[in-house]
Amino acid sequence: MIDQWLQHKWFLRFIALALAVLLYLMVAETSSSNNASSALPIVGQSSMTLDVPVEVFFDEVQYVAYNVPEEMGVELQGPSSSLTMTKLVKDYQVFVDLTNLGTGFHRVPVEARGFGGDVNVKLDRETVEIYIDRKQTIEVPVSVNLLNKDQLPDGKVAGDVEIEPSTVKVTGGASRIQNVKEITLNVDVSNQSQTFTREIPPTILDANGNPLNVSVDPNIINVTVPIYNESAMIPIEVVTSGEVADDFRLVDTLLGETEVRVFAPKAVLDELQQVETEPIELDDLTKSEKVTATLRLPEGATSLGKKEVEVQVLVRPNDETKDDTGELTERIRLTVPINVRGYDRTNFTIQTQDVVSVTLSGKRSLLESISSNSVNVTLDLTGLPSGTHAVDADYEVPKGVTVISPKTIDVQLTGVDEETETSSIQ
């Protein structure tokens, strides 16, 4: 029967292969005994160290885990061939299993697998202390702190910042994010001469100034900082020339917009009381009409927010006091002190005008009894960040009186820390 096997070529090939392997092993063993430095990888002993990422197994939908090391050093000892295969294939894991653990601190073992049965594995740490917290998502507003505004080019100011999005979702451990009320982005405006936009990744810091391990969605905030020439909102004064026809009178000149933004050096703005129109001709007018008036550029100003305004010229017979809609159109202008509220005086300084010229409309008999003490003007700065803002004016006036202008008043808020700030975080 053996003779029959010897006649099959596959049987002979198997015998040849077995003898070749046996011979190889014998030579390798002899070589290993005679010269350790020339040991063949398949039987030689060796060691190596790897830095392996630490994986975490837990319910990521409901919980977050803190204090997990990102990676861990692993010392391996075993046959060189096995270590080489381990390094090439990388079919191994270092992990901590938090399955079925509740919230709080837990000391858990660090485990390893996939390194091969003939490889001895030694980890840098056998256990780690992990903190498990319940996952929570909150929505918080985003604000911007402008740094180095005093280093803007001469005649330039930073306007109201545009933030997109203005709120973000913060996800993390409930105990970690409970004190997160707002995200503040720091933007350096030094030497900026024109409007610019930056993409800023939001960072949330703990009480010690260290980044919190939380996720923010979206993870990029677009911040646009308008850079203007120095400017202010200035009342418009209608100038007329000539006289209306006999037996008629000029009741009023009603402006479509009562203020215009003037761009000029601060010294000019501080002295500028009004912007006049080019004279509107009234000669022989016997009826009301709407005209477009050109605004005069004040001396020392560089430009105006607009060049023209619409003016309703109201002309009535001497025995009439009402316009076509039945509204009384008599007006007066009073200088009224400005009250400011809603800002933290310990953290901010404020720059705004002390008084404002207010235009009022109402019955002539009522207006004749009104003085500056009859009008109260308040600016509410609650929640405003650092920067220049056109703040809506809140008026208290006698019943039957309407405020024509101004609707807004410019206010500049400066953080106390910004006055000495010399470097930018972003």
TrEMBL record:
InterPro entries membership: c-di-AMP_regulator (IPR053154), YbbR (IPR012505)
One family name in Pfam for this protein: YbbR
The protein's name in its UniProt record: YbbR family protein
Organism encoding this protein: Exiguobacterium sp. (strain ATCC BAA-1283 / AT1b)
